[in-house]
Amino acid sequence: MSTKIEEALEHIKTAQKYLKTSVLRWKPDFDSAADEFCQAAQCYRIARDLKQARDCYYRASESYKKNRSFFHAAKALEQALLVGKELSNADELFNLALEASSLYQQHGSGDSAAGLLDKAGRILEQDTPQLAVKLYQHAADISANESSQHQGIEYISKASRLLVRLERYDEAVDNLRREIGFHLEANNLPAVGRLCVAIVLVQLARGDTVAAEKSYKEWGGHCEMAEVQTLDQLLQAYDEEDPDSARKALRSPFIRSMDVEYSRLANCIPLPEPLDPMMRAGVRENAAPSYVSPNASTSASVEHHRAYDEENEESPYEPVTYGPKKIEEEDEDEELC
C-alpha cells in the first residue's frame, strides 16, 4: 500500500510541474497535468485512501475544464462521485452530479449526462429520496431533448414511484401526467391504461373522487378490459359510498399485480364512510337547511286571507228553488165562478 501512495505522490509532483510555466513552456500543459492527477487518484483508490483519490479527481476535472475537454472533465467528476459516495453528504453528491451532467451536455453527450444522473439518483434514493426525485426528473428531461423516449420513460417512472412512496400525491399526479405524455409520444398505449389506474389511485389517496373520475374519463379510452372492470367497480363503490365494494375493488388481482408502490398505496387509501339506511332515504344529519325565500311568509299570509275571503263571499249564482204549481186549486176556483 505504501508503494502505491508513493507512486501517487510522484504523479502529483509531475502534474504540478506541467502546471508551471518556464522559458520553454509559456502555457501550462493542463491536459498532461490532468492525466497525472487521474493516475494519482487511481493509486490512492488501490491504497484505499478514498479522500485523497476524490481530491485528485477534483483537480483532474479542473485541469480538463481549463483545457476545454468537457467530456474528460465530466468523467473525472463522475469518478469522484463514485469514490466519495461514502465520504460526501447528500447535498454535495447532488450538486456534483448536476455539475458533471452539465459538462456532459456541453460536450454533446446527453445520454451520458442522463446516465450519470440515474447513477447518482440510485445512490441517494435510499437516504434522501427527495433529491433522487429531482435527479430522475432532470434525467428524463435530458432524454426527451435527446429523443431517447425509452430511457426517459424509465427515469420519469422512477420519479413517479418515489413521489408516491413519499406521499407527495399532488406532485405524483403531475409526474404521472408527464409519464403518460412520454408513453403517448412513444405510441405505447397499453402502458397508458396501466398509468390511468395509477393516477386514479393517487387521486383517491388525495381524497378527490371527482378528480379520479375526470382522470378516468380522460385516459380510460386506452384501458384494457381488466383495467376498465377494476376502475368501474372502484369508482362506483366510491360514488355509492359503499366501503365493502371499495375494499374489494382495491384488493383486486390487477391492482395487486401493479408496481409495489401502487399496490401498497391501495392499502392506504381511505374507504368511503357508509351511510345510515335512514339517512339514505331521508335527510342527512347536520345537513344545511333548505333555502327559504325571504318573501315566503308574506306570500303565505296573502294566500291565507285570499282563501278566507273566497269562502265567506256570497256567490251571485246561488241556486233558486221553485215550489210546485197549484194547478188543481186554480181549476176548482174557475168551476165555482
UniProtKB/TrEMBL annotation:
The protein, known as: Gamma-soluble NSF attachment protein
Recorded family membership: Belongs to the SNAP family.
Top-level taxon of origin: Eukaryota
A Gene Ontology term for the protein's cellular component: SNARE complex
Organism: Bombyx mandarina
Composition bias, Polar residues: 292-301
Gene: LOC114246128
Subcellular location: Membrane
Stretches assigned to coiled coil: 159-186
Pfam family, one: SNAP
Region (Disordered): 289-337
Topology versus the membrane: Peripheral membrane protein
Keywords attached to this entry: Coiled coil, ER-Golgi transport, Membrane, Protein transport, Transport
GO molecular function terms listed in the Swiss-Prot or TrEMBL record: soluble NSF attachment protein activity; syntaxin binding
InterPro entries, per the entry: NSF_attach, TPR-like_helical_dom_sf
UniProt record, GO biological process: intracellular protein transport; vesicle-mediated transport
